[in-house]
């Protein structure tokens, strides 16, 4: 049996390198984090062969003093912490002091730095070299400011490690992904990336929107939902991607804790639950979110590469994340613009729209919109080819003639005598644009204006076809406009102030019904269904302890579980809504989720899945004919329903075609 002995420092560093420096991207991450901690505002990154031949980082930070250069390459030497108290509230990206030493033990490393103290630069820079752990004496060097680190031949003399390297293109892809994460976390820092002598990316310093647009995409920013929520020392801000732009992978998910990119099970579960109601099937949401909290509330020293963290109050963090993000996603009502979205950008599709003058939706109530719907339009039957419009003279005036027949007695019943006597029109300043066009070609008083086209069945209750209605206000057109027709029993065509809206009536009504079901259920206690024969199943000690600790909370969620023996549990009642589910599988899944994320949101996902099914079967189906008032009522409901931009399966419920889009289709103005 070999005897226990102390390992050499060089071997210890190489063992540490196996944990910290997994691949070139890991080494580059350590170098960039040191540059960010040094206050750099411009970073230039040069790579060769995916980082296996050369990793070079040039920054303009504060630099390193001459007498600290050699110390920087020693294990556990750092300027970030000095005591246990500092370790408990780490506020920098790096703090262990083993990154440079580990990299230097498996490569040829050159460190050149010019120290800046209180704004004054040292007379010149100094350089120190390390060849696979063997340090050379510092020597003078030329450098304007900051620090330059070069890492040559990573793992060249460690063939056992080098054989696990992938191709150059794969290693570069990992490096590029890591650079993007750090660039997103620091939008005020300029980045330049060069690979094999050619510039790959150059991001100027700016704000988060510009940096996210450059890395994740313009569409993500244009359609994204701004998030800015806070509670106590917790703050969540950033951009949540539109649910309609779901991805097939998680590559566009970026979450940062105090500026550090992390992957945490609690965080991922909370974000997934927040998107559950609006994301389509197995698609993944895109987001770029930042969580800020007291450094003492998070432990970043739980993973060799610091990509995982542990929260001191994980349940509080979970509740804050799901509440904040759900609140932001709930603002995606159909036709509504987010607070930070320009008025010329459609929040759902990201289209550039014509300038509009729509008043804030808070000034009008849904019932006001319903009344305006009757005033602006009635059912519009398509005229047959043999129906004459002789009084209007041209074929192009047929739609105007139809509108005039529909609205003539309603709009001008009180003023027709004035027209016949003076021949002058009404004050154009008080008329919508389409009424001014009617005025220009309106028949004389002795022309026949039959009221046969006015469908009295679509008028408000108690109104007659010749009832005089108040003037319509074109500036009060609601966000989704007024319904015009139904297409193939599937889509509703609506005229908005800036173009046309197409609505999937089943998807839209499905969301409206779903939100109503959730609200009705939340206002009542969870009903329970007692089981005639309890379902007994084997359980481990953790499950038994969970039941003993959270029995009351489980009963409040509608699930009654008792301990039958130290190794068995019995399900005695289940939620009424889930009475047809497998009690044992339901109990096991809930207990597992409770151990991971707590009891507060466990049942929400399963309950919502059931409500989604109920809403799907209870909403209007395709090929069902709707009347104009029914269509308008659905549009008004969409405008006041949370998350109505998507159905509960994540499909979009509406789409806008602006006048600019329609003009392009018909090449108008070209």
Please give a structural write-up.
GO terms for molecular function: ATP binding; ATP hydrolysis activity; ATP-dependent DNA damage sensor activity; endonuclease activity; mismatched DNA binding. This is DNA mismatch repair protein MutL. Pfam families: DNA_mis_repair, HATPase_c_3, MutL_C. Keywords: DNA damage, DNA repair, Endonuclease, Hydrolase, Nuclease. Residues 483-626 form the MutL C-terminal dimerisation domain. The protein is of the alpha+beta class. 35% of the residues lie in helices and 20% in strands. It contains 22 helices and 25 strands. The strands form six sheets. Strands 1, 2, 3, 6, 7, 8, 9, 10 and 11 form a nine-stranded mixed beta sheet that branches. A hairpin with a 2-residue loop joins strand 23 (560-565) and strand 24. Helix 12 runs antiparallel to helix 21 and helix 17 (541-549) packs across helix 19. The longest helix has 18 residues, at 168-185. The protein is globular, with a radius of gyration of 33 Å. Residues 337-362, 369-429 and 432-474 have low confidence and may be disordered.
**Number of helical stretches of at least 4 residues:** 22
Question: Overall pLDDT, averaged?
Answer: 75
The coarse silhouette is globular
Helix content percent band: 25-40%
Number of strands: 25
How would you sum up the major sheet? 9 strands, mixed
Cα separation of the termini: 88 Å
**Structural class label:** alpha+beta
Residue stretches low in confidence (pLDDT < 50, at least 5 long) are 337-362, 369-429, 432-474
Strand content: 15-25%
- Tell me the radius of gyration: 33 Å
């Amino acid at each position: 049996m070999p005897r226990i002995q102390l390992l050499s420092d060089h071997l210890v560093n190489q063992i540490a390198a196996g944990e910290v420096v997994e691949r070139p991207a890991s080494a580059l991450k350590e170098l960039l984090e040191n540059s960010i901690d040094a206050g750099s505002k411009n970073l230039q990154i040069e790579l060769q062969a995916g980082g296996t031949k050369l990793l070079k980082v040039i920054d303009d930070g504060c630099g390193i003093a001459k007498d600290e250069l050699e110390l920087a390459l020693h294990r556990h030497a750092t300027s970030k912490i000095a005591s246990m108290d500092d370790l408990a509230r780490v506020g920098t990206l790096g703090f262990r002091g083993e990154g440079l030493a580990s990299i230097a033990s498996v490569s040829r490393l050159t460190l050149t730095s010019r120290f800046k103290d209180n704004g004054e630069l040292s007379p010149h820079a100094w350089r120190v070299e390390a060849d696979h752990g063997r340090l050379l004496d510092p020597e003078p060097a030329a450098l304007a400011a900051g620090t330059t680190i070069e890492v040559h031949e990573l793992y060249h003399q460690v063939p056992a490690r080098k054989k696990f390297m992938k191709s150059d293109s794969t290693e570069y892809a990992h490096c590029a992904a890591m650079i993007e994460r750090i660039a997103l976390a620091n939008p005020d820092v300029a980045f330049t990336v060069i690979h094999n002598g050619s510039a790959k990316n150059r991001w100027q310093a700016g704000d988060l929107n510009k940096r996210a647009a450059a890395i994740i995409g313009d569409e993500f920013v244009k359609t994204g939902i701004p998030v800015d929520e806070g509670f106590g020392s917790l703050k969540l801000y950033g951009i949540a991607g539109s649910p309609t732009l779901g991805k097939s992978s998680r590559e566009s998910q970026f979450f940062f804790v105090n500026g550090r990119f992390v992957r945490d099970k609690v965080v991922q579960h909370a974000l997934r639950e927040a998107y559950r109601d609006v994301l389509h099937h197995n698609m993944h949401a895109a987001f770029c979110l930042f969580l800020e909290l007291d450094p003492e509330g998070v432990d970043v020293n739980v993973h060799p590469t610091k990509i995982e963290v542990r929260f001191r109050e994980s349940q509080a963090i979970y509740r804050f994340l799901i509440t904040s993000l759900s609140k932001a996603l709930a603002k995606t009502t159909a036709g509504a613009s987010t607070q930070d979205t320009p008025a010329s950008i459609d929040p759902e599709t990201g289209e550039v729209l014509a300038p509009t003058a729509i008043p804030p939706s808070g000034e009008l109530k849904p019932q006001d919109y319903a009344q305006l719907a009757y005033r602006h339009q009635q059912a519009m039957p398509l005229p047959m080819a043999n129906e004459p419009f002789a009084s209007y003279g041209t074929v192009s005036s047929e739609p105007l003639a139809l509108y005039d027949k529909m609205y003539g007695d309603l709009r001008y019943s009180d003023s027709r005598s004035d027209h016949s006597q003076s021949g002058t029109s009404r004050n154009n300043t008080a008329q919508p644009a389409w009424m001014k066009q009617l005025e220009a070609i309106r028949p004389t008083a002795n022309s026949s204006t039959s009221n046969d086209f006015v469908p009295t069945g679509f008028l408000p209750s108690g109104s007659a076809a010749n009832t005089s209605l108040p003037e319509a206000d074109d500036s009060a057109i609601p966000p989704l406009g007024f319904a015009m027709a139904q297409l193939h029993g599937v889509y509703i065509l609506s005229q908005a102030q800036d173009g046309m809206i197409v609505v999937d009536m089943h998807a839209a009504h499905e969301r409206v019904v779903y939100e109503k079901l959730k609200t009705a259920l939340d206002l009542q206690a969870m009903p329970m269904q007692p089981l005639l024969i309890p379902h007994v199943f084997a359980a481990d000690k953790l499950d038994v302890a969970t039941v003993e600790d959270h029995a009351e909370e489980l009963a409040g969620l509608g699930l009654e579980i008792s301990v039958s023996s130290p190794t068995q549990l019995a399900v005695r009642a289940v939620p009424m809504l889930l009475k047809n589910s497998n009690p044992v599988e339901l109990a096991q899944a809930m207990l597992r989720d409770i151990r991971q994320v707590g009891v507060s949101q466990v049942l929400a996902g399963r309950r919502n899945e059931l409500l989604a099914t109920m809403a799907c079967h209870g909403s209007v189906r395709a090929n069902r004919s709707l009347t104009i008032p029914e269509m308008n009522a659905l549009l008004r409901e969409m405008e006041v329903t949370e998350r109505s931009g998507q159905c509960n399966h994540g499909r979009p419920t509406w789409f806008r075609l602006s006048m600019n889009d329609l003009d392009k289709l018909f090449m108008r103005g070209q």
